[in-house]
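hey so i finaly got around to running the thing on Polyketide cyclase from Paenibacillus oryzisoli. pasting the sequence first so u can double check i didnt mess up the copy paste, my clipboard has been acting weird all day
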Amino acid sequence: MTTIRKEIALNVSPEHVWDAVKDVGAFHLRLVPGYTENTLLEGNVRTLILPNGDSVRELIVAVDDNERRMVFAVKEGRMPLLHHNASFQVFPNETNSSTLVWTTDFLPEELGKMIQDQVDRVSEVMKHTIEAAAKKESQHSD
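ok and heres what it spat out for the 3d tokens, dont ask me to read them lol
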């Protein structure tokens, strides 16, 4: 099994980042607008609707407020994966900023380059989205 671990430095409080990550039914709004069109949530099953009409079906395994960690497993998707699970975990930094760690495990290993490229692209979208939302909120509270 292959593991990819991506650390995303965010100039946002860990509370703000965690609030976005744990909102599993608003993935398309709070983390990756444009990359995902819509999110459907039925119990612990989340379906991500992609802009081209494809979908990815995931099982939400855990949402842990104490550890600020969310875990999911892909059940059906567009790639020929034998196995795919991932987690997001938020860690505080000293300056009221945070690090979002995205860990993903998958088979087959041959998909490593494709999945690494996807993780890199999606990480940029998440960073921009989370920081923009925090900036907008702070401007409204001033």
